[in-house]
Amino acid sequence: MGDRQLKIDAKLIQEEAAQKHGILLSEKRAAELAQEVNRLNSATAEAAKAIDLNDDPTVFIATLRQLKR
User: How many structural domains compose the chain?
Assistant: First the structure.
């Protein structure tokens, strides 16, 4: 999979909200949500580096909690 990470932008957030949920978001709100999604994606990607697919599933959650600190 590599270290390439998709960056989510406000336009994508607006399009998905409208198409999938019928929600119209302002550019400002979409930008805020995009920033949050990217932050969460980064934390998840970082935590995923620290686990092995053969690990106990609870290790992933524990790793995310540890990164949050």
Answer: 1
